[in-house]
Amino acid sequence: MSAPLLEVRGVTRRYRMPREALLRSPPVLTAVNDVSFVLERGQTLGVVGESGSGKSTLARMIMAFEAPDEGAVLFEGQDINRLGAAALRQARQRFQMVFQDPFGSLDPRRTVAWSIAEPLRVMRAEGIDRRIAEALDQVGLRARDGEKYPHEFSGGQRQRIAIARAIVTRPALLVADEAVSALDVSVQAQILNLLMDLQEDLGLAMVFISHDLAVVACICDQMLVMRHGDCVEFGDTAGIVARPRHDYTRSLLVASGI
Amino acid sequence: MMELDRVSVAFGEALALREASLRIEAGARLGIVGESGCGKSMLGLCLMGMVPDAAVVSGAIRLNGRDLAGASEAVWRRHRARDVAMIFQEPMAALNPLSRIGDTVMEPLLVHEGLSRAEARDRAIALFEEVGIPEPAARLRQYPHEISGGQRQRVLIALALTCNPGLLVADEPTTALDANVALRIIELLVRLSETRNMALVFISHDLAAVARATQTIAVMYGGDVVERGPTAQVLSAPRHPYTIGLLGARPGLGDRGRGADGRRRRLVTIPGNVPPLFDLPAGCRFSGRCSQEIAQCAGTRPVAHVLDGGQEASCHLLAPAAPGRAGAVT
């Protein structure tokens, strides 16, 4: 039996806070506390929680931007924190990330095509131009949009560009951290539909992080609710929405309903 | 209490507001919704007399019957805080990081109300209690960075209340807050409006927040008020294609799950993007993105059609003789 696409096994991440007093040891903040889950190929997992609940720290550990203090992140059975630099670079083709603010992640002085090709250059891939055109097409942009610069696009289109850059390496997993939070409602719906298309057409698995439970519920098979670093509820989205077991989940549901 | 009568705000050729009219009754709660760039914040600034100098304002802005549209800054300053006060999205930006919270809140009491320091301090504590800030006396000595975002927004609300305004304009007051905290701020604003008989204009892109906070709603697009009416009615039975699209685009908990083909259900979308102000169509601002568009939409501005129950929508499809009346649009 093959390993699941992603297995997060009891990860904990602590940060030392600034010292409050000279002779006292600095306080420790547990940003993520013993969180575990398994994500199969083509599945979507939503991570919901308020700011400071640890959801972005979890994302950074899944992406191997930082290592857990305890526990392990296994991607296709491999502990990504034990990979050497070159092996990690190779493995990164298979898991990519989309952030909240595409303006912050696109170089304003470079064409969109250049930015999209960045991960391909790192990989020393072949047929770069063809793959840029393919990625632009997949996110609903035209091939000649690649010659333009980020400021020539609207917020929604910039997020499409960021998604194109994430899928150009043909990843198996996409981690989206508040990827639609900065967008207007009508544009947000376009991007959510795009993510659903990509997920179904490319068989992409997704970890979708958001403070907005309604957004998570509309796009995710499973849901993980985080609070103060703990996973307070995990399970099937429909089940959690219909019968939340934790008071905190219930309060998020109340707050998100129209 | 306050009224905007066909107010336009022009930046050169571009209209940030186009003949927008609104009535705000004493003690009533009105919501302004729309996406970024639709003119909702500009409308809020009109109510405060804080339209940027570069803009040309026309129409009438009446406060208790008196037109202040062309009034000087000195005149407006007499009304701000006393008659109309405002809170914003980012409470940290509105507080002086170098001042203790108490000094910030007591300043208008000392300056406008002419209270002594001891009196001002007592009033500040009473206001903090009113807006639900625990341990108000201790809070006065703290700096803005020492308290949470929700508490900061409460401080801003207390600050806005110092001179007992008849109208509070809240521009995206809950957008920067976590969902649970936002809910409590909304409850507070509603309670304050009721206990003080204070009118509330609640500006937000968040339909769920506006649904909770307000009694009537105005939906804006491209500088126009396109639909208005009782909040519950407009949100449950929208008639303007933009309002219908906006509600459909919002992921509700009911949208979850998959269709018969095994694919996940897609959200309703409005094609394209909100166009920039200088690039709006001359007629209906929504033409070009509207799925129900007919010949006159791009060139002729639709008038507001009065519907049942006090609802109004500005759409050519609602004209009695229009082909394919928008009532059928869902």
What does this structure look like?
The complex is a heterodimer of chains A (about 260) and B (about 325). In chain A, about 40% of the residues lie in helices and about 25% in strands. Chain A has ten helices and ten strands. The longest helix of chain A is centred in the C-terminal third of the chain and has 18 residues. Chain B is an alpha/beta fold. Chain B folds into two domains: about 220 residues, Rossmann fold (3-Layer(aba) Sandwich); about 80 residues, no CATH class. Helix content of chain B is about 30%, strand content about 20%. Chain B has eleven helices and twelve strands. In chain B, the strands form two sheets. In chain B, strands 6-7-8-3-9-10-12-11 form an eight-stranded mixed beta sheet, with helices on both faces. In chain B, strands 2-1-4-5 form a four-stranded antiparallel beta sheet, with helices on one face. The C terminus of chain B is likely disordered. Chains A and B meet through helix 7, helix 8, helix 9 and helix 10 of A and helix 8, helix 9 and helix 11 of B.
